[in-house]
Amino acid sequence: GDFNGTPVFIGTSDPDPHVPVERVYATTNILKDMHAKVTEKVYTMMGHTISQDEIDQANNLIFNPVTTKI
């Protein structure tokens, strides 16, 4: 498949007891290989939760999308 520049946000904690950070890095690389425009943020010691910054990042993707002409 080809994401054709689709923006993707991936946020995680290091450590996260459920998702190893290495798995997040691997996922980011796969998505980039499929031409997604990936923003990856690793939060220190946040745990398996969602931060306000992650909510802000997601809202930015939804409400302020970057449009490009193909």
Instruction: Indicate the low-confidence ranges by residue numbers.
Output: none
Strand content: 15-25%
The ordered string of helix (H) and strand (E) elements is EHEH
- Counting DSSP H or I runs of 4 or more residues, the number of helices is 2
Q: Please list the strands of the largest sheet in the order they lie side by side.
A: 1-2
Quickly give the structural class: alpha+beta
Return Rg in Å: 13 Å
| Topology, number of strands | 2
Distance between the termini: 17 Å
| Helix residue percentage | 25-40%
General description of the model:
The chain is α+β, with helices and mostly antiparallel strands. It has helices at 21-33, 52-63; strands spanning 7-14, 37-44. It has a two-stranded parallel sheet with strand order 1-2. Helix 1 (21-33) links the parallel strand 1 (7-14) and strand 2 (37-44). The radius of gyration is 13 Å and the shape is flat.
Give a concise summary.
This protein is an alpha+beta fold and 70 residues long. It is built from two helices and two strands, in the order E-H-E-H.
Write the layout of secondary structure elements.
Elements: E1 7-14, H1 21-33, E2 37-44, H2 52-63
Parallel strand pairs: 1-2
Summary tags:
2 helices, alpha+beta, two-stranded parallel ribbon, single chain
